Amino acid sequence: MACPLCKNRSLSSYHRDNRREYIQCQMCRLIFVPSQYFLTETDEKARYDLHQNNPLDVRYRQFLGRLFHPMIERMKPKSYGLDFGAGPGPTLSVMFEEVGHTVVLYDPYFAYNPDVWNDRYDFITATEVLEHLKNPKEDLERLWGCLKQNGYLGIMTKRALEPSRFRSWHYKDDETHICFFSHFTFKWLAKSWNAPLVFCGDDVVIFAKN
Ligand SMILES: [Zn+2]
Questions:
Q1: What are the structural domains of the chain?
Q2: Backbone angles phi, psi at 123, to 5 degrees
Q3: pLDDT of residue 52 exceeding 80
Q4: CA of 29 relative to ligand 1 center, distance in Å
Q5: Cα separation, 2 vs 8, whole angstroms
Q6: Residue 131's closest CA among 55, 31, 44?
Q7: What confidence score (pLDDT) does residue 50 get?
Q8: Rounded to whole angstroms, how far apart are CA atoms 55 and 104?
Q9: Ligand 1: distance of its center to the CA of 66 in Å?
């Protein structure tokens, strides 16, 4: 077994509960669930179908605002973006379009548009997506490759804290959540990309591409 983010094979057991085990990479410190515990695609999609997100939901907009506001502060007018993992009720893209940007969507289940990978973007967002990735190295490298110079990659995912708090962390109990990034892991990724990184609150990071 290798780390799905950095491919390092130096791994250690991080936690085990009555359903799954959690492994930590010693290099990038990603915490991940081994593939034998992954849900089938049918079961995974059934879980996502339960997400009742929609653009009219004020509380959902406030939640997304934690990424939306720091992104638009940085972006040029009329920027062109990709929302990766848009889900069943795309809302962040609507918010960007309301302030003059253009956004295309990609989602393996709800917006399967492989043509999006042929284009290049001023900004890319992934909200509540990284924790679901089976192949984070491949997915993140593909996103980074599609980002234009001077572009921004904005990510929202809850960050893993110290081991004593992981045990009671509800975020790990969702069986579609298989990758947990920490502060250290994002710093490791920024270093590997040679990219400035900003942490905005507890669950948002923004990478800049120089
Ligand atoms: Zn790793």
A1: 11-208 (3.40.50.150)
A2: -150, 150
A3: no
A4: 6
A5: 6
A6: 31
A7: 84
A8: 16
A9: 27
Residue 49: predicted pLDDT: 85
Give the sheet arrangement for strand 31-32, strand by strand.
Answer: 11-16, 21-25, 31-32, 179-180
Express each pLDDT in 54-98 by its tens digit.
888 999 999 999 999 999 999 999 999 999 999 888 999 999 999
Map tokens 């593909």 to a residue. 142
Alpha-helix runs per DSSP H in 20-161: 41-49, 58-74, 92-98, 136-145
**What sign does the CA torsion over 80, 136, 202, 43 have?**
positive
206: CA distance to ligand 1 center in Å? 20
Q: What is the dihedral of CA 132, 134, 137, 141, to 10 degrees?
A: -70
Question: 94 φ, ψ to 5°?
Answer: -65, -40
Q: Per residue in 119-143, pLDDT tens?
A: 999 999 999 999 999 999 999 999 9
